[in-house]
C-alpha cells in the first residue's frame, strides 16, 4: 500500500501551528467548518512518516463515532484503507490505531510515539488524556499529543488552558490554538454560510459556541429545547385554528424497565395519554387500536426500531394507517441533520420556540423534554442528538414520553385534515377578541 502521495493543500495559520508546532501537546479548539479533523489526520500521517516503525493512536469516546466519522474522514483525506481491526500499517512499518474509550485499558502495555484525540470535549474529564500521556514512551519518536475540540464552557480542556502543563524546568509543554468558522470562510459553501444566519437568530447560544467558538459558560448548554420554552407550553390553549389534524404517537418499550407510551395529539395540542409496562406485540397493538378508536383518530406514528417493528407489522395487518418512524434513518436534509432523530428534535424545538405546542402539566414529560441534549455537533454543522441508550446511561432512565411526543409533533404534518373550522367561531366563547396578525 503506497503512502508516498503528497498532501498539497494550503493550510490555514491555525492548522499550520497545530501540525508543526514544537510544543509537546497541541490543543485546537475551533468552530464548525474549520478543518479540525483534517489537521489532526495530517498531523497523524506526518508523525507516522517521520519515524519508521512508529506507533500512534487516534482516540474518540464512542465506537459508533469512531467508525462513522473519524475513520471515514481518515480514509477520505488519505485515500488509505483502515483494516477491520481498526488499524493501518504504512510502508515504513509505522502503525496507526483507532480506538474508543472502552478499549483504553487495552493500551496499558504499549508504548506510543504520539496520540490524537478527536472531539476531546466529549470526554468528561482529563482521565483519558492523562492515560495516553503516560503511554508516550516510544523511541525514536516525537512523543506528542494532538487534541481537537469544539468549545464547551469551562471544561477540563479550558482548565488545562488556564493552568498550563509544565516540565520540571518550568517550560510550558502545551499550546492552545483557536479559530472560529469565519476564519475558514473562503473554503465554505455559501449555502452553509447562509444557514448560519438562521442559526444565529434561532439559537444564539449554539451559534456563539459552535460558530464563534465561545467559551462562555452560558453558551455551552447542549439542551435542545430550552426549559423556558417548555414551561410556557404547559396548558397553552390553541388560538387560531383553520384545520384540524390528529395523530396517535407510540413509543414501544424495548427493555424491561422502559414504558410503552401512547399520546393523542390534535394540532400539536396534547389530548390524552396512556402508558404501559412491557407487553408483547399483540397486546401492544391491541392497546394502540383501542386508544385510536377512543379518540376517533385514523393515523398512528410508531417507532419502528426493535420491538416496534413487530407492532408496525401487526397494525398494518389490521388495516391501520401507520406512519413508521425509524430514528436512525436518513434525514430529509443529510447536510443539516445526522439522522431522522436529529431532524425530529430540531423540528420540535422550533415549534416550542414559536409557541405552537401545548403540553399537559406532567413533570415527567417536562423533565424528559428538557434533559435531552445535542450529542457532539459535527464539524460540518450537522446536528446530532444523543441516543436513547446514551440518555439511559447518563440519567438511569429512558425518555420514552419525550420521544413519543416529539415523534407526534413530527408526524402530524404528514396526516390529512379531518375537518376545517372557523377559528373565530370556535374560540370566541372561550377567549375575548384580541387583535392578531393571524386573524386579519
Features:
440 residues; alpha/beta; Rossmann fold; Nucleotidyltransferase, domain 5; 3 domains; seven-stranded mixed β-sheet; 15 helices; elongated
In words, what does this structure look like?
With 440 residues, the protein is α/β, with parallel strands linked by helices. The chain folds into 3 domains: 13-180, P-loop containing nucleotide triphosphate hydrolases (Rossmann fold), CATH 3.40.50; 187-219, no CATH class; 227-420, Nucleotidyltransferase, domain 5 (2-Layer Sandwich), CATH 3.30.420. Helices cover 35% and strands 16% of the residues. It is built from 15 helices and 14 strands. It has helices at 13-20, 36-50, 63-78, 127-133, 156-163, 190-202, 204-210, 227-233, 281-294, 308-317, 340-353, 363-371, 388-395, 400-411, 423-427, and strands spanning 25-30, 55-60, 87-89, 95-100, 114-117, 144-149, 174-179, 243-244, 246-251, 260-266, 269-276, 299-303, 321-325, 419-420. Strand 3 and strand 4 form a beta hairpin. Helix 11 (340-353) packs across helix 14. The relative contact order is 0.11.
Strand element count:
14
CATH topology of the largest domain: Nucleotidyltransferase, domain 5
Order of helices and strands: HEHEHEEEHEHEHHHEEEEHEHEHHHHEH
Q: Return the CATH architecture of the largest domain.
A: 2-Layer Sandwich
The count of domains is 3
Amino acid at each position: 500500500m503506497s503512502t508516498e502521495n503528497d498532501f498539497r493543500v494550503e493550510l490555514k495559520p491555525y492548522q499550520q501551528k497545530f501540525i508543526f508546532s514544537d510544543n509537546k501537546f497541541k490543543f485546537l479548539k475551533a468552530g464548525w467548518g474549520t478543518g479540525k479533523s483534517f489537521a489532526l489526520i495530517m498531523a497523524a500521517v506526518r508523525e507516522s512518516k517521520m519515524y519508521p516503525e512508529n506507533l500512534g493512536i487516534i482516540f474518540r469516546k464512542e465506537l459508533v463515532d469512531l467508525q462513522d466519522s473519524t475513520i471515514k474522514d481518515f480514509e477520505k483525506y488519505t485515500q488509505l484503507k483502515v483494516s477491520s481491526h481498526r488499524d493501518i500499517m504504512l510502508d515504513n512499518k509505522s502503525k496507526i490505531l483507532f480506538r474508543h474509550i472502552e478499549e483504553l485499558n487495552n493500551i496499558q502495555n504499549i508504548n506510543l510515539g504520539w496520540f490524537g484525540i478527536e472531539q476531546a470535549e466529549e470526554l468528561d474529564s482529563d482521565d483519558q488524556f492523562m492515560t495516553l500521556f503516560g503511554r508516550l514512551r516510544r523511541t525514536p519518536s516525537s512523543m506528542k499529543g494532538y487534541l481537537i475540540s469544539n468549545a464547551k464552557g469551562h471544561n477540563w480542556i479550558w482548565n488545562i488552558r488556564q493552568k498550563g502543563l509544565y516540565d520540571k524546568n518550568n517550560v510550558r509543554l502545551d499550546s492552545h490554538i483557536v479559530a472560529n468558522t469565519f476564519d475558514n470562510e473562503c473554503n465554505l459553501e455559501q449555502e452553509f454560510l447562509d444557514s448560519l444566519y438562521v442559526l444565529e437568530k434561532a439559537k444564539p447560544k449554539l451559534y456563539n459556541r459552535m460558530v464563534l467558538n465561545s467559551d462562555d459558560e452560558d453558551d455551552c448548554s447542549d439542551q435542545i429545547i430550552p426549559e423556558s420554552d417548555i414551561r410556557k407550553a404547559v396548558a397553552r390553549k390553541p388560538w387560531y385554528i383553520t384545520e384540524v389534524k390528529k395523530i396517535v404517537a407510540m413509543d414501544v418499550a424495548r427493555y424491561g424497565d422502559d414504558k410503552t407510551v401512547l399520546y393523542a395529539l390534535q394540532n400539536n395540542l396534547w389530548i390524552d395519554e396512556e402508558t404501559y409496562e412491557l407487553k408483547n406485540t399483540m397486546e401492544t397493538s391491541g392497546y394502540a387500536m383501542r386508544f385510536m378508536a377512543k379518540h376517533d383518530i385514523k393515523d398512528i406514528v410508531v417507532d419502528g426500531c426493535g420491538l416496534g417493528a413487530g407492532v408496525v407489522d401487526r397494525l398494518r395487518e389490521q388495516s391501520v394507517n401507520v406512519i413508521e418512524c425509524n430514528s436512525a434513518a436518513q434525514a430529509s436534509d443529510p447536510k443539516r441533520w445526522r439522522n431522522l432523530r436529529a431532524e425530529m428534535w430540531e423540528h420540535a424545538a422550533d415549534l416550542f420556540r414559536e409557541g405552537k405546542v401545548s403540553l399537559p402539566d406532567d413533570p415527567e414529560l417536562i423533565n424528559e423534554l428538557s434533559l435531552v441534549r445535542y450529542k457532539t455537533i459535527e464539524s460540518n454543522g450537522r446536528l446530532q442528538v444523543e441516543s436513547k441508550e446514551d440518555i439511559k446511561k447518563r440519567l438511569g432512565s429512558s425518555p420514552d414520553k419525550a420521544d413519543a411526543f416529539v415523534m407526534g409533533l413530527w408526524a402530524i404534518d404528514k396526516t390529512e385534515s379531518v375537518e376545517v373550522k372557523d377559528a373565530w367561531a370556535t374560540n370566541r366563547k372561550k377567549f375575548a377578541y384580541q387583535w392578531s396578525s393571524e386573524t386579519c
